[in-house]
Amino acid sequence: MTKGRGPRIYDASAHVLHASAWRETSLIIQAFTRDHGRLALVAKGAKRPYSALRPVLVCFQPLWLSWSGSAEVRTLTRAESGPVRLLDGRALMSAWYLNELILRLLPRDDAYPLVYDAYAGALDALAQPLAPAAAHPAALRRFEWVLLEQAGYGVEGPMPDFTDSRAAAMVRRQLRERLEPLLEAPLRTRRVLLELQHY
Fold this sequence. Notes:
alpha+beta; 2 domains; CATH 2.40.50.140; 199 residues; de novo design (two linked rop proteins); 5 strands
């Protein structure tokens, strides 16, 4: 630890939830880490064409991030990527839905390791190219269940089998009743997912 610069964290398991431009060459990254929760990191120079960070800081991919500082926005010092997940079509939109839920419902700087594991598991399920039609909705419902349970708004009882369409429909209504009052505005990705169901 360097005096005056705050703690240094090395190789934390993480995912990028969102990135936005900051100044001419940098990005502000909203990251979700297993052991440190959700946090904001500045990736200096990440927008430069030859930046080593540019191809690594991609949503939905497993990463190992290192950073320093204790301010509201820390400084990213290193990022390494893990195995690549390939998402497309509805799977990609479903993954954005997961990110929006985390950004809207989880506070910064609180670790939720079970939610992180459920998120990674959902992304793995969404990345399976030959998964049956019910696999994606089941992955989303399992994630919602764990997220609400860990945030203190869970449905009582054990997690149901979300591949059972009748059980899934019943629990989906319960999850919606608990989830929607927590949101100040409707989820943009949910609206798109509902529209896609009609194609």
